[in-house]
């Protein structure tokens, strides 16, 4: 029976320390997860997708021209960002727009695919929130390390939590039967 008592003490110690470390990651993940679930509803987190004049891709300007239009408009509004290059282009045929995303500063320019009219220039806070959520804001290796630690830590907490719940019951039953 001494091994049960020792086991419970050890599990309690491990459960506490792992729980504290995992709690920090769960807290960040929970807060950022809530924000990401609201990104389509709160314009500050992610600018709403604007509607373009045509959903027919045949009428759209070439992507290279839309990229030039977006870059020119962006640099005109933010001249200090002239070295900021395009990271990716999010083509939204169903909305008639292209979202041009820049590498630095989480900037987005939305352009009408047909007319080339700039619909919006704004920051996408959802991108850095997502990077914070998965740990990639620090680095890719930290993302892998922290997410694996979180998953393994939660499994250990579940197993140790079950034992910390069941072990004392078993110990009490043993002591009752011994008398």
Secondary-structure blueprint:
Elements: H1 2-37, H2 63-77, E1 86-92, E2 97-102, E3 107-112, E4 118-123, H3 125-134, H4 140-178
Antiparallel strand pairs: 1-2, 2-3, 3-4
Helix pairs in contact: 1-3, 1-4
Number of helices: 4
Given helix and strand content, the structural type is alpha+beta
Give the uncertain stretches in residue-range form. Answer: none
Report the strand count: 4
In percent terms, what proportion of residues is strand?
Answer: 5-15%
Fraction of helical residues: 55-70%
In the sheet with the most strands, the strands line up as: 1-2-3-4
Report the radius of gyration as a whole number of Å: 26 Å
- Measured between the Cα atoms of the first and last residue, the distance is 14 Å
User: What order do the helices and strands follow?
Assistant: HHEEEEHH
What is the overall shape? elongated
Mean residue pLDDT: 93
The overall number of domains is: 2
- Largest β sheet strand count, sense and barrel closure: 4 strands, antiparallel
């Amino acid at each position: 029976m001494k091994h049960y008592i020792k086991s419970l003490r050890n599990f309690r110690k491990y459960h506490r320390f792992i729980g504290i470390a995992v709690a920090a990651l769960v807290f960040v993940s929970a807060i950022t997860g809530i924000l990401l679930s609201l990104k389509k509803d709160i314009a500050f987190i992610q600018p709403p997708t604007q509607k373009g004049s045509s959903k027919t891709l045949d009428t759209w300007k070439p992507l290279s021209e839309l990229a030039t239009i977006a870059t020119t408009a962006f640099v005109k509004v933010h001249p200090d960002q002239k070295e900021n290059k395009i990271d990716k282009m999010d083509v939204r045929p169903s909305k008639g727009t292209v979202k041009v995303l820049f590498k630095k500063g989480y900037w987005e320019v939305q352009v009408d695919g047909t007319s080339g009219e700039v619909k919006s220039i704004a920051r996408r806070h959802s991108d850095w929130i997502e990077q914070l959520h998965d740990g990639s804001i620090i680095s890719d290796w930290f993302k892998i390390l922290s997410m694996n630690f979180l998953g393994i830590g939660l499994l250990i907490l579940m197993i140790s939590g079950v034992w910390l719940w069941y072990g004392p019951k078993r110990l009490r039953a043993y002591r009752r039967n011994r008398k």
